[in-house]
Amino acid sequence: MPPLRQEPPHRRRRCAVAEEAVAFLHLDVGRHPNDRRLAALIGELSMHSDTFRTLWAAHPVQDKTHGTKHICHPVVGELELGYETLLLPGDLDQCLVVYTAPAGSPSEDRLRLLASWQASDPPAPQTSAPRPGTNRRPRPTRPGPTR
Hints:
Layout: H1 9-31, H2 36-48, H3 50-58, E1 66-73, E2 77-88, E3 91-100, H4 106-119
Antiparallel strand pairs: 1-2, 2-3
């Protein structure tokens, strides 16, 4: 008997992400049943994607409140980040998603590397005082090439 082949981890993650997205989309349709643009999106996805049609027909409904995201960053590589979704009271259409890397993990090291690159960028140019008669400061300008 030949050994069973397992799907590679990135394919399993992609399938899980698609299932989560469709389940959340079902939840959003329930919140906004008369949204024509949402209906048009679902119609277009249904016409062009067998995978979407299959997932949509299963009718999963689920909010995305917490979990793990896998991100393949072009410079530092694989990041595995936990996330929490914080809903704003009285407005289910607005949320704040907080991502964290486990302490001491390779993902934490990679995020620190990215942060150090940002920290080493030159500071933004200083702006002058507000223009007379306004409360607005002029936009900062980047120094041009020296001649």
